[in-house]
Amino acid sequence: MANYMIRLAIMVLATFFLHSEVVESQQHRYDREYPHIGYSSETPTDRVQKLGQLLATQKDILQFENENGYLKSILSELNISTNSQTLVFSKTSINARLITPGTPRAIYFSDDVYVGWVQGSESLEIAATDPDLGMVFYTLAQEKTDKPQIKRQNFLCLECHDTYGLTGGGVPRLLMGSGTTDEYGRSASHEGWRLTDHQTPLEQRWGGWYVTGEHNNQAHLGNSIITTSGSRILAQDNINKIGALDGLIGDNRHLAETSDIIALMLLEHQIHIQNLLIRLQWEASNNLDLELLDQKILSASEKLLEGMFMVGEAQIMGPLSGDPQFQKDFETKGPYDRKMRSLRQLNLETRLFQYPFSYMIYSTTFEALPKPLRHHLFGRIWEVLIGLDRSKSFEHLSSADRSAILEILRSTKSDFRDWQKTRMKQSSPNDS
């Protein structure tokens, strides 16, 4: 029973979605336990909601195409690159009947929006990060009409994305995981799926996903399809040689020929940090006096801090390389400091980021945290970077790492810089 419940929680593996509306009379448990959020009752303000409002008053914003429906058009409107494409062929979605290794599910993403497309599905699946509500789920019907509608989905999606009582704790979130898969897209192991993040060794990542790019023969579970007889469709020594998916996917209608290894790593990191941010935000909503942070908030803050500093990151036995255009698009978003350094710069030799601290500090979710909580996090970041926190968790940071991250934050994040100026005025010379 326990294994069944865990697999139910992870059945959407990478993320999100549904393709029909469900009416549910019972109030969600988190709506009772986090009443200040008003998740089900409040109107979102995220980019997808705004696009939906625009569609209600203006025509010809979205263009329908026979092969992919509204996919290209909505990616363009939401400023999501087709180069961000990752492909999952595990039957771990509401569209399980449509997903096979020959017809994988595509996921496209930016910093705050995710779009899922399954060949033959009735709907596009969309998830957006709302600054107040956290992760919000939508669908867009794949049928040509003069008035396409983006519809918010509050119930069926959350049967998996809430994951109350398992590992989610009653806060809507995204999921990304890994597990061996057979030629029909079904689980090929009794061990089931595991959620993955930056701490997961590469040899345990991306089961049920396609992976393109080079990884210096470092083992992973991507591209691994186990037949009913136990043999592999792709031999382990050929997995590293896949530059594009041409020939592996039948009747290919996907927008790119890649499921980029760098995009997968960034998707993994981003989902992990967003989940931690949203959990922290929800815990803060229940605290009436944020000047006195309770233990739940302090604990959630430390988990976020460790995630942002990439504590326990599994070592990369590089070099890794993927789609150069995707990497360029990602890195050039910046922001950059005066020395042209950015938290988006990638290392890919021994670790993911050149400067091991998450670019998600610029996200709308972080910015939406209450001021006392943001200042608490700034204080902890400061303690780590100037060496006041000497715990083993942050031993992976060299003095050069600490100095560079501090300088980048001072230059590119104005509220951190303002906080630091106030902090310096109040601190003793020994603290600076």
Could you please describe the fold and organization of this structure?
With 432 residues, the protein is an alpha+beta fold. It folds into two domains: 2-239, no CATH class; 291-431, no CATH class. The protein has helices at residues 2-9, 29-33, 47-55, 71-77, 158-161, 236-239, 261-285, 295-308, 324-331, 364-367, 371-385, 399-412, 414-426; strands spanning 86-88, 105-109, 113-117, 123-130, 134-141, 150-152, 177-178, 181-182, 194-195, 225-226. The strands form three sheets. Strands 1-2-3-4-5-6 form a six-stranded antiparallel beta sheet, with helices on both faces. The protein has a two-stranded antiparallel ribbon with strand order 7-9. A two-stranded parallel sheet has the order 8-10. A hairpin with a 3-residue loop joins strand 4 (123-130) and strand 5 (134-141). Helix 7 (261-285) packs antiparallel against helix 8 and helix 12 (399-412) crosses helix 13. The chain is globular and about 65 Å long.
